[in-house]
Design goal:
The protein is mainly α. 90% of the residues lie in helices and 0% in strands.
Length: 200
Amino acid sequence: MKKRVIGIALFAALSLPFSVYAQESGSKPGAASTENSSGPNLGLMWFNFAVVAAGLGYLIAKKGPAFFNARTAAIQKAIKDATGLKMDADFRSAEIDRKMATLGAEVSRLRADAGAEMQAEQQRLAQETAQSLARIEQHVIQELAALEHDARLGLRRHIADLAVSMASSRLRDHLTPSDHDILVTRFAGQVSAHQPGGGN
């Protein structure tokens, strides 16, 4: 409401001198050439300038502090934000510098950790390989022992078969009918001796 009243007052103050000047120039058409026109026009111009200056001064005095205060607050806020951003950028830059300074030590630590892990892995693989080789060797020893046992049994059977074959072949070649009868008699005597009541 105050803005509207101030605007109407300024409009009236600015339009009043022009309307007065228009009436004066319209009422005396013949005398305009004889009178000095610079006097009233100059006074009206100064009056108009004074009214406009007063209106502008009032508006500046009324609205200026709030505008400049708001502008100052906006500038201060922008400065504060810029300061915060600069501090954040400085902090990040310092953090990056710190990380870059410790990068060599970090790389060395990672290399040492990787070397220790590789050495531990090599030891673990060597242990597993040794255990696997020991199991394989034990299995091979057991297999060889079983094969040797089977081979010995087979060899014994073969020798026994050969001995029986050779003995039977010798018996067939050298056994006479009388020797045959003697062997049968002996065998029958041994069988009768082992039977219950055979000794009676």
